Amino acid sequence: MSFWQHNLEENVSRQPWTAQGFNKVLLDSARAGAAGVMAHIIRFAPQRVVYMSCNPMTLARDSQALLTSGYQLERVTMLDMFPHTGHLESMVLFSRK
Ligand SMILES: C[S@@+](CC[C@H](N)C(=O)[O-])C[C@H]1O[C@@H](n2cnc3c(N)ncnc32)[C@H](O)[C@@H]1O
């Protein structure tokens, strides 16, 4: 197994790990979301995207980018991982139509 680190808001298409191609993305964004990353994910056209988020507001915002780019929402699960706080962990599965 290999681990790579890169700023995903930049064009990653020349990164070595993109050469082999991939058809699934697991995105675990920071609370601010991943607005600057969504266009890059969409360009790779993965079959499935799992988006994990601890901020439903930014999750909803970033989901729009996928939903308007040919993805459909397959499943949503919410986990109360931070009881007695206003924070909520969500996992959303999107698939390309
Ligand atoms: C919710 S945490 C995910 C933690 C991860 N699942 C783990 O177990 O280490 C969000 C992560 O996104 C990273 N991040 C934020 N902006 C990024 C960016 N533009 N490119 C790459 N990673 C970014 C943060 O550094 C942080 O580690």
Automatic annotation (TrEMBL):
Keywords: Methyltransferase, S-adenosyl-L-methionine, Transferase. The keyword Methyltransferase applies. Pfam families: tRNA_U5-meth_tr (PF05958). PROSITE patterns: SAM_MT_RNA_M5U, TRMA_2. The keyword Methyltransferase applies. InterPro entries: MeTrfase_TrmA_CS, SAM-dependent_MTases_sf, U5_MeTrfase_fam. The active site is at C54. GO terms for molecular function: rRNA (uridine-C5-)-methyltransferase activity. S-adenosyl-L-methionine binds at D28. One of its GO terms (biological process) is rRNA base methylation. Belongs to the class I-like SAM-binding methyltransferase superfamily. RNA M5U methyltransferase family. This is tRNA (Uracil-5-)-methyltransferase family protein.
